[in-house]
Write a structure and sequence with these properties.
Helix content of chain A: 40-55%
Number of strands of chain A: 16
CATH architecture of the largest domain in chain A: 2-Layer Sandwich
Number of domains of chain A: 2
Largest sheet of chain A: 9 strands, mixed
Number of helices of chain A: 16
Strand order of the largest sheet of chain A: 1-4-5-11-10-9-6-8-7
Oligomer: homodimer
Structural class of chain A: alpha+beta
Shape of chain A: elongated
CATH superfamily of the largest domain in chain A: Bira Bifunctional Protein, Domain 2
Distance between the termini of chain A: 75 Å
CATH topology of the largest domain in chain A: BirA Bifunctional Protein, domain 2
Chain lengths: 468, 468
């Protein structure tokens, strides 16, 4: 060691030693879920899973890391946000960035002809976290996709129906689903005189219309992206159009906007069919046919959609999706499998649910599901409390007792109230001698003494009353 | 570029190009879960979660990656199995190796005084995978722990009760839980004349007794670890002792094995108390007090236990745990929080469940939960099928239909049979005109015609019949 090296070593040791006294930390952009947050999360997942299952979807799971090759070249510029694993000798690996590319890899790898699947899992992005807005580096995605060759627009209608049911069932308030068609959008740009090479960049400018005024978007089109002003103005007159599906359809036909444009007319025809199916499902009122909806991702090839909340000023979508008929081909030598799907913005939904619970707009959520608390007065009753709990557990009743020898009544009662446990059983030496237990229905504030042999039945009766 | 470099570049490009034609691959030691495997996995998780909830546990979640510092120095030699993330500028991160160290970090970070929590999550180890035996590089752990200062042996008894309920509820056959006490083990070694410095290495030799004969273990003790043969022989006479908790306790007292050894007598006293609680819980018959149980991990400080299946020849534990009173202190400047917990070997359980389903020893599992399939005969009934499904979905009934315009009856029936859907609804133009639907109860092979207005009620009646 040179003296210089010695100094560095000393410093390193010093820092390591002082580090021992620091509080442990989390990686940037990640979070722990505490018990109450988990209860909210589980509630949301339960609602979402139930809708997926209601529509006959299966679920699959893929690993959190994939070969780096699988992920690279799929996300354009965003590839820089992919977490890579260290090269520890072996394969080069990376954490998944979304659930869609692994799904495409899955379809190609097992040669899956058709599947209706959902997948709930964590994904990873080395993005700038904004944790108070629900933007993390580790976050959940909830995806539903229908892959396979089916009747025109039928899986698309089903996907939108699934999305409405989820948003209806979640306690997050009112919403609206904006809908458009990638081919209609391209036709619109074509008709206005936008060159085909500029379709995607101009789309990405249009995509900002939910956050920025037209004047600013126009400037981007003309000054940054070199679109003639007259073309931008024509686009400007169309992108403001939005209405109920049938109403806007009627207007577009009356104004002959797409008349004579083959791709445009075909897209309109497809949408017309889709709107028939919306009527069969009774969801027209939840959809806004909106010519300004563009969606950022390049891989969409048909219907695109995005849900926003209408009760709040917060911008941004809480669910979105579309048809992507050419993505699987990347993994299967061009053998495409048509697919349509949606993704639920579950982290934002958690935040909204937590907010609404805090504001008491929706019912509180409990950390545990405990139904019965077994309390005792006086000493030497620990084994009795254990035996009673055991009896309750055997009957699949969720029960708890305090893990101390002689618990004070105050401490037991506090636990019952804080945890919101609906039933409290109390025993003392008298009760044990008589072979009875006192059963308190906490919200009805009723207490009855029942024989120990009738305990299970009595508890079940009370629980049934609160089941709704 | 020198010619040599050019050649390498050419080769690289050639390999990359031919790689495009290869089937996509998974990272070594990882797997996709297909729909049926997921159904088995979800069934197991549901059973396990229900037991945790039945005992009033909350659940928490921690990130998949932690600061590298948090994980390093906690796993001894196994630290080399930790997956590190690439240094992409920023923090040094690593994938979690288990759920226990993140739990200890969690307790210290938020200064949690007591918590009864479960955590189900994926962990990562760069180990040699043996995937047919259920050993993966990405795999699930299901942990239950009680942290906090409570009455002696009460949380320990609860943890073992939880373990028995999970193993009883899972369809995996009969099992036995081996139990010992780290302090009793140390006392035993001490009494036999083993020097304290050799306690842990000798323990790790004893730990192999479930896979190797005594002669081999003795050789390891004497030749590798330098224990005098007489000491090894003394140990050999004790480690063969195992019996029902009370029976072995009586024998150890009668033989005065630990008499006069303070720590040994204290451990026996603790176990005696624990066995009282086993009696209150009625689980004595599931426990084998076994002096050969040592458990590999260094951090255990009290009771240790391990469950093995008794109907199969497969060795290895399917659940294990113990008390670790000094682990949290590492993260909180020595401020310890006593804790006891168990971990369920869920990947092995998945494998066992899949095997038993294949052998038809337990009931088959369905990929989907679909309750009703809506079929049609003839054409032009797509919207009607959609409307009927919509009605069923509104009543929270799980329903499906084929996503094609004019499905053939054969194709619809095949789907119903393959997916094991219990109810099939059939409509034709006649039925629609009359406002009725045909409802087929698939397993009863009964078909009735009911008015469309009575459909929901009728379907619910059939479903109720098949519940439970």
């Amino acid at each position: 060691l040179t003296p210089r090296n010695g100094a560095i070593e000393y410093l390193t040791r010093f820092l390591a030693a002082s580090n021992q006294n620091k509080k442990p930390k989390l990686a940037k952009g990640t979070r722990d879920y505490h018990a109450l947050q988990m209860a909210v999360r589980e509630k949301a997942f339960k609602i979402i899973r139930n809708v997926f299952a209601r529509h006959g979807a299966v679920t699959i799971d893929t690993p959190v890391f994939e070969l780096k090759d699988t992920l690279m070249g799929k996300y354009g510029e965003d590839s820089k946000l992919i977490y890579e694993l260290a090269d520890q000798g072996g394969e080069l690996l990376a954490l998944r960035y979304d659930l869609t590319v692994p799904f495409a890899r899955y379809l190609a790898m097992y040669n899956v002809g058709n599947i209706k699947r959902y997948h709930i899992g964590k994904v990873y992005r080395r993005d700038n976290p904004a944790m108070n807005k629900g933007r993390f580096r580790e976050f959940y995605q909830c995806d539903f996709d229908i892959a396979g060759s089916y009747g025109l627009m039928i899986p698309d209608a089903e996907t939108l129906k699934v999305m409405t049911e989820i948003l209806d069932d979640l306690p997050i308030g009112n919403y609206c689903i904006k809908l458009n068609h990638r081919k209609l959008l391209d036709a619109m740009l074509d008709i206005c005189g936008c060159p085909a090479a500029k379709f995607r960049p101009i789309c990405s400018a249009i995509d900002k219309l939910d956050k920025e005024p037209w004047s600013k978007v126009k400037t981007e089109m003309v000054e940054e992206k070199g679109l003639p002003e007259a073309v931008a103005d024509k686009i400007g007159k169309l992108v403001i159009l939005k209405d109920e599906p049938r109403a806007l359809m009627t207007k577009l036909k009356a104004d002959a906007v797409f008349k004579g444009h083959k791709a445009g007319e075909q897209a309109l025809q497809e949408l017309n069919l889709l709107f028939d199916y919306f009527e069969a499902f009774g969801i027209c009122g939840k959809i806004s046919f909106d010519l300004s909806l563009a969606r950022g991702l390049d891989y969409y090839t048909g219907v695109i959609f995005e849900a926003v909340l209408t009760d709040t000023n917060q911008v941004g979508s809480i669910a979105a999706g579309g048809r992507y008929d050419n993505l699987v081909g990347i993994f299967s030598n061009g053998k495409d499998i048509p697919a349509v799907g949606c993704s639920i913005g579950i982290e934002r939904i958690f935040t909204i649910m937590e907010d609404r619970i805090k504001k008491q707009e929706v019912a509180a959520v409990r950390e545990t599901e405990t139904e019965v608390f077994v309390a005792s007065v006086g000493g030497n009753l620990l084994s009795k409390r254990m035996a009673l709990c055991s009896k309750l557990w055997s009957a699949d009743i969720k029960a708890e007792y305090l893990y101390v020898d002689k618990p004070k009544m105050q401490r037991q009662l506090t636990h019952v109230l804080e945890a919101g446990i609906p039933i409290m059983i109390v025993i003392g030496e008298d009760e044990v001698a008589k072979g009875v237990v006192k059963v308190k229905d906490m919200s009805a504030k009723e207490e009855v003494e029942v024989p120990e042999t009738a305990l299970i039945e009595h508890v079940k009766t009370i629980l049934k009353k609160y089941e709704c």
